[in-house]
Protein backbone atom coordinates (compact mmCIF):
# COMPACT_ATOMS: atom_id res chain seq x y z
CA UNK A 1 0.00 0.00 0.00
CA UNK A 2 2.85 2.35 0.86
CA UNK A 3 4.57 1.67 -2.45
CA UNK A 4 1.32 2.26 -4.30
CA UNK A 5 0.87 5.61 -2.57
CA UNK A 6 4.45 6.64 -3.34
CA UNK A 7 4.01 5.64 -6.99
CA UNK A 8 0.79 7.60 -7.31
CA UNK A 9 2.35 10.66 -5.72
CA UNK A 10 5.40 10.43 -7.96
CA UNK A 11 3.24 10.11 -11.06
CA UNK A 12 1.16 13.10 -10.07
CA UNK A 13 4.21 15.20 -9.38
CA UNK A 14 5.73 14.24 -12.71
CA UNK A 15 2.69 15.69 -14.40
CA UNK A 16 2.86 18.77 -12.21
CA UNK A 17 6.37 19.40 -13.46
CA UNK A 18 5.28 19.52 -17.09
CA UNK A 19 4.80 23.10 -18.31
CA UNK A 20 1.21 24.00 -19.09
CA UNK A 21 1.77 26.99 -21.34
CA UNK A 22 -0.76 25.78 -23.86
CA UNK A 23 -3.60 25.93 -21.36
CA UNK A 24 -6.00 28.81 -21.87
CA UNK A 25 -5.97 31.37 -19.06
CA UNK A 26 -9.08 31.63 -16.94
CA UNK A 27 -10.82 34.99 -16.70
CA UNK A 28 -9.22 37.20 -14.05
CA UNK A 29 -11.94 37.99 -11.53
CA UNK A 30 -9.92 40.67 -9.77
CA UNK A 31 -8.22 42.73 -12.46
CA UNK A 32 -10.11 45.87 -11.60
CA UNK A 33 -9.24 45.83 -7.93
CA UNK A 34 -5.58 44.81 -7.93
CA UNK A 35 -2.71 47.05 -7.00
CA UNK A 36 -0.08 46.19 -9.59
CA UNK A 37 3.68 46.39 -9.20
CA UNK A 38 4.46 44.90 -12.59
CA UNK A 39 6.04 48.03 -14.06
CA UNK A 40 8.43 50.51 -12.48
CA UNK A 41 7.27 54.01 -11.62
CA UNK A 42 10.37 56.22 -11.72
CA UNK A 43 11.02 59.29 -9.64
CA UNK A 44 10.35 62.69 -11.30
CA UNK A 45 13.92 62.81 -12.62
CA UNK A 46 13.57 59.34 -14.13
CA UNK A 47 15.73 57.58 -11.56
CA UNK A 48 14.82 55.00 -8.96
CA UNK A 49 13.62 56.39 -5.64
CA UNK A 50 16.61 57.00 -3.41
CA UNK A 51 15.29 54.67 -0.73
CA UNK A 52 14.88 51.92 -3.32
CA UNK A 53 18.13 52.44 -5.20
CA UNK A 54 20.21 52.50 -2.04
CA UNK A 55 20.85 48.90 -1.03
CA UNK A 56 22.18 49.92 2.38
CA UNK A 57 19.60 49.43 5.09
CA UNK A 58 19.28 48.44 8.71
CA UNK A 59 17.00 45.80 10.20
CA UNK A 60 15.61 47.00 13.50
CA UNK A 61 16.51 44.91 16.51
CA UNK A 62 12.82 44.50 17.28
CA UNK A 63 11.83 43.64 13.70
CA UNK A 64 9.27 40.88 13.37
CA UNK A 65 10.66 37.34 13.19
CA UNK A 66 10.41 35.96 9.66
CA UNK A 67 8.95 32.53 8.98
CA UNK A 68 9.80 30.97 5.63
CA UNK A 69 6.95 28.58 4.78
CA UNK A 70 7.71 25.73 2.43
CA UNK A 71 5.55 24.30 -0.32
CA UNK A 72 4.55 20.85 -1.52
CA UNK A 73 7.44 18.41 -0.94
CA UNK A 74 9.37 21.42 0.32
CA UNK A 75 11.86 19.96 2.77
CA UNK A 76 13.39 22.53 5.10
CA UNK A 77 16.85 22.35 3.56
CA UNK A 78 15.44 23.53 0.21
CA UNK A 79 14.64 26.89 1.81
CA UNK A 80 17.95 27.35 3.54
CA UNK A 81 19.33 29.58 0.74
CA UNK A 82 16.66 32.26 1.18
CA UNK A 83 16.77 31.84 4.95
CA UNK A 84 20.54 32.35 4.87
CA UNK A 85 20.13 35.57 2.89
CA UNK A 86 17.63 36.84 5.43
CA UNK A 87 19.88 35.96 8.37
CA UNK A 88 22.84 37.65 6.70
CA UNK A 89 20.74 40.80 6.41
CA UNK A 90 19.93 40.73 10.12
CA UNK A 91 16.50 39.10 10.25
CA UNK A 92 15.50 36.49 12.79
CA UNK A 93 14.46 33.57 10.62
CA UNK A 94 12.96 30.11 10.95
CA UNK A 95 11.76 27.63 8.33
CA UNK A 96 8.41 25.88 8.53
CA UNK A 97 8.13 22.57 6.70
CA UNK A 98 4.52 21.64 5.99
CA UNK A 99 3.18 18.55 7.80
CA UNK A 100 3.50 15.42 5.66
CA UNK A 101 5.40 17.59 3.18
CA UNK A 102 2.17 19.31 2.23
CA UNK A 103 0.35 16.30 0.77
CA UNK A 104 -2.54 16.53 3.23
CA UNK A 105 -5.47 18.88 3.73
CA UNK A 106 -4.27 22.48 3.52
CA UNK A 107 -6.72 23.47 6.25
CA UNK A 108 -5.12 21.00 8.64
CA UNK A 109 -1.67 22.26 7.68
CA UNK A 110 -2.87 25.78 8.52
CA UNK A 111 -3.93 24.63 12.01
CA UNK A 112 -0.47 23.19 12.59
CA UNK A 113 1.07 26.39 11.24
CA UNK A 114 -0.96 28.43 13.74
CA UNK A 115 0.64 26.45 16.56
CA UNK A 116 4.06 27.07 15.08
CA UNK A 117 3.46 30.82 14.82
CA UNK A 118 2.31 30.88 18.44
CA UNK A 119 5.51 29.07 19.42
CA UNK A 120 7.72 31.53 17.52
CA UNK A 121 5.96 34.50 19.09
CA UNK A 122 6.31 33.00 22.56
CA UNK A 123 10.00 32.19 22.08
CA UNK A 124 10.89 35.60 20.66
CA UNK A 125 8.49 37.80 22.59
CA UNK A 126 7.30 39.29 19.30
CA UNK A 127 3.72 40.42 18.91
CA UNK A 128 3.75 39.62 15.20
CA UNK A 129 5.67 37.61 12.63
CA UNK A 130 6.32 38.21 8.93
CA UNK A 131 5.68 35.42 6.45
CA UNK A 132 7.59 34.54 3.28
CA UNK A 133 5.73 31.62 1.75
CA UNK A 134 6.49 29.54 -1.32
CA UNK A 135 3.91 27.79 -3.49
CA UNK A 136 1.38 25.83 -1.37
CA UNK A 137 2.82 27.51 1.71
CA UNK A 138 1.15 30.73 0.58
CA UNK A 139 -2.27 29.06 0.71
CA UNK A 140 -1.57 27.52 4.11
CA UNK A 141 -0.54 30.93 5.43
CA UNK A 142 -3.53 32.72 3.91
CA UNK A 143 -5.96 30.24 5.44
CA UNK A 144 -4.32 30.83 8.80
CA UNK A 145 -4.56 34.60 8.46
CA UNK A 146 -8.11 34.61 7.14
CA UNK A 147 -9.78 31.95 9.26
CA UNK A 148 -7.59 31.08 12.25
CA UNK A 149 -6.87 34.46 13.82
CA UNK A 150 -3.62 35.12 12.01
CA UNK A 151 -4.61 38.64 10.97
CA UNK A 152 -3.65 39.82 14.45
CA UNK A 153 -0.36 37.92 14.46
CA UNK A 154 1.08 38.68 11.01
CA UNK A 155 2.61 41.97 9.93
CA UNK A 156 3.73 41.24 6.37
CA UNK A 157 2.85 38.44 3.97
CA UNK A 158 4.91 37.66 0.86
CA UNK A 159 3.96 34.75 -1.36
CA UNK A 160 6.32 33.37 -4.00
CA UNK A 161 4.57 31.53 -6.82
CA UNK A 162 1.53 30.54 -4.76
CA UNK A 163 -1.52 29.38 -6.77
CA UNK A 164 -3.84 31.83 -5.03
CA UNK A 165 -6.60 31.23 -7.58
CA UNK A 166 -5.55 27.64 -8.36
CA UNK A 167 -3.57 26.15 -11.21
CA UNK A 168 -4.62 24.26 -14.31
CA UNK A 169 -1.56 22.06 -13.85
CA UNK A 170 -3.35 20.36 -10.96
CA UNK A 171 -6.44 19.86 -13.14
CA UNK A 172 -4.29 18.24 -15.84
CA UNK A 173 -3.43 15.35 -13.49
CA UNK A 174 -7.03 14.20 -13.77
CA UNK A 175 -7.07 14.77 -17.53
CA UNK A 176 -4.13 12.43 -18.18
CA UNK A 177 -5.85 9.60 -16.36
CA UNK A 178 -4.37 9.73 -12.86
CA UNK A 179 -7.72 10.43 -11.27
CA UNK A 180 -8.34 13.38 -9.00
CA UNK A 181 -4.71 14.35 -8.37
CA UNK A 182 -3.85 10.71 -7.71
CA UNK A 183 -5.60 11.10 -4.37
CA UNK A 184 -3.32 13.88 -3.12
CA UNK A 185 -5.65 16.13 -1.14
CA UNK A 186 -3.57 19.31 -1.39
CA UNK A 187 -3.33 18.91 -5.15
CA UNK A 188 -7.11 18.57 -5.36
CA UNK A 189 -7.50 21.74 -3.31
CA UNK A 190 -5.13 23.66 -5.60
CA UNK A 191 -7.14 22.73 -8.70
CA UNK A 192 -9.01 25.63 -10.27
CA UNK A 193 -12.62 25.57 -9.14
CA UNK A 194 -12.03 23.55 -5.96
CA UNK A 195 -14.30 24.07 -2.96
CA UNK A 196 -11.24 24.94 -0.90
CA UNK A 197 -10.28 27.83 -3.17
CA UNK A 198 -13.88 29.01 -3.42
CA UNK A 199 -13.93 29.37 0.37
CA UNK A 200 -10.46 30.89 0.63
CA UNK A 201 -11.17 33.47 -2.07
CA UNK A 202 -14.65 34.41 -0.93
CA UNK A 203 -14.89 37.93 0.47
CA UNK A 204 -11.75 39.94 1.13
CA UNK A 205 -8.52 38.49 -0.28
CA UNK A 206 -6.42 40.60 2.07
CA UNK A 207 -8.00 40.82 5.53
CA UNK A 208 -6.58 42.68 8.49
CA UNK A 209 -3.77 45.21 8.67
CA UNK A 210 -1.31 42.83 7.02
CA UNK A 211 0.88 44.17 4.19
CA UNK A 212 0.03 41.72 1.39
CA UNK A 213 2.48 41.11 -1.46
CA UNK A 214 2.65 38.42 -4.12
CA UNK A 215 5.56 37.64 -6.43
CA UNK A 216 5.17 35.67 -9.65
CA UNK A 217 7.17 34.82 -12.77
CA UNK A 218 6.28 34.17 -16.40
CA UNK A 219 8.41 31.01 -16.38
CA UNK A 220 6.48 29.36 -13.55
CA UNK A 221 5.98 25.76 -14.65
CA UNK A 222 3.45 24.92 -11.95
CA UNK A 223 1.18 27.93 -11.58
CA UNK A 224 -0.81 28.37 -14.78
CA UNK A 225 -2.06 30.84 -15.71
CA UNK A 226 0.64 32.83 -13.94
CA UNK A 227 -1.85 35.58 -13.08
CA UNK A 228 -3.42 33.13 -10.64
CA UNK A 229 -0.50 33.77 -8.30
CA UNK A 230 -1.93 37.25 -7.61
CA UNK A 231 -4.39 38.60 -5.05
CA UNK A 232 -7.06 41.28 -5.22
CA UNK A 233 -8.30 43.84 -2.69
CA UNK A 234 -5.26 46.07 -2.36
CA UNK A 235 -2.46 43.51 -2.53
CA UNK A 236 0.78 44.49 -4.25
CA UNK A 237 1.38 41.99 -7.07
CA UNK A 238 4.91 41.86 -8.47
CA UNK A 239 5.68 40.22 -11.81
CA UNK A 240 9.45 39.78 -11.96
CA UNK A 241 9.57 40.19 -15.74
CA UNK A 242 7.48 43.35 -15.51
CA UNK A 243 10.61 44.95 -14.07
CA UNK A 244 13.32 42.70 -15.47
CA UNK A 245 12.14 41.38 -18.88
CA UNK A 246 15.23 39.24 -19.43
CA UNK A 247 15.18 37.60 -16.01
CA UNK A 248 14.41 33.87 -16.22
CA UNK A 249 13.00 32.45 -12.98
CA UNK A 250 11.14 29.17 -12.60
CA UNK A 251 8.78 28.05 -9.86
CA UNK A 252 11.47 26.61 -7.61
CA UNK A 253 13.84 29.38 -8.64
CA UNK A 254 11.75 31.98 -6.83
CA UNK A 255 13.36 30.95 -3.53
CA UNK A 256 16.87 31.09 -5.04
CA UNK A 257 16.72 34.10 -7.33
CA UNK A 258 18.54 37.26 -6.29
CA UNK A 259 16.11 39.65 -7.94
CA UNK A 260 13.18 38.01 -6.19
CA UNK A 261 15.02 38.29 -2.91
CA UNK A 262 15.44 42.04 -3.33
CA UNK A 263 11.64 42.31 -3.51
CA UNK A 264 11.26 40.20 -0.36
CA UNK A 265 13.78 42.32 1.51
CA UNK A 266 12.15 45.56 0.42
CA UNK A 267 8.74 44.39 1.62
CA UNK A 268 10.07 43.22 4.97
CA UNK A 269 11.76 46.58 5.55
CA UNK A 270 8.81 48.67 4.30
CA UNK A 271 10.78 50.09 1.41
CA UNK A 272 9.46 50.94 -2.07
CA UNK A 273 9.48 47.94 -4.39
CA UNK A 274 12.20 48.38 -6.98
CA UNK A 275 13.73 45.00 -7.88
CA UNK A 276 17.44 44.78 -8.61
CA UNK A 277 17.54 43.07 -12.00
CA UNK A 278 21.25 42.26 -11.64
CA UNK A 279 21.16 40.68 -8.18
CA UNK A 280 22.55 37.19 -7.76
Automatic annotation (TrEMBL):
Residue ranges of the region described as Disordered: 28-50
Taxonomically, which superkingdom?
Answer: Bacteria
Question: What are this entry's molecular-function GO terms?
Answer: hydrolase activity
Its signal peptide is: 1-25
Pfam family membership, one: Lipase_2
GO process terms (BP): lipid catabolic process
Query: What keywords appear on the UniProt entry?
Result: Signal
SUPFAM superfamilies per the UniProt record, alphabetical: alpha/beta-Hydrolases (SSF53474)
Put simply, this protein is called Lipase (Class 2)
Q: Which organism is it from?
A: Micromonospora halophytica
What does the record give as the organism's lineage? Bacteria, Bacillati, Actinomycetota, Actinomycetes, Micromonosporales
